[in-house]
Amino acid sequence: MKSSxxxxxxxxxxxxxxxxxxxxSFDIIAVIEHHQTRILNLIPFTGLSGSNVxxxxxxxxxxxxxxxxxxxxxxxxxFWRKLGxxxxxxxxxxxxxxxxxxxxTDITDIITNTAxxxxxxxxxxxxxxxxxxxxxxRCIAGIIVAVVAAxxxxxxxxxxxxx
Length: 163
Description:
Elements: H1 2-22, H2 28-35, E1 37-41, H3 50-73, H4 79-100, E2 102-106, H5 107-128, H6 133-157
Parallel strand pairs: 1-2
Helix pairs in contact: 1-3, 1-6, 3-4, 3-5, 3-6, 4-5
């Protein structure tokens, strides 16, 4: 069962990267050609507007499952180290966006992504204090599989990507 949680972590991480970097597009070259803008924002939470706040909430939400999955898979790793890994993943994504010019590189994204991972780690800790860990792990895995399957179904059969 432990290996299936690792596979789920890898699958979720791949899906997350596909979402963040390529906006679920199958034509990665078109995404790279379409953007070709390098914007770097190192001042957190600048230019707050309704759409920015929505994007920040979305960043938090999509990283919560990553925190949950790291909690399941990283029993031998300390809390702060897991949070650091989530932060490094977020930083890496932002750097890749800057290198390829496929999105805005923003410190706010790193903060909100890491906050989402923190919430996931905290939720797992809180729930594991009140629930059997095997049942908790299965529930989390089932919910994540269902959500990712729904998102992929919507992307493949309903939503159109503009690139």
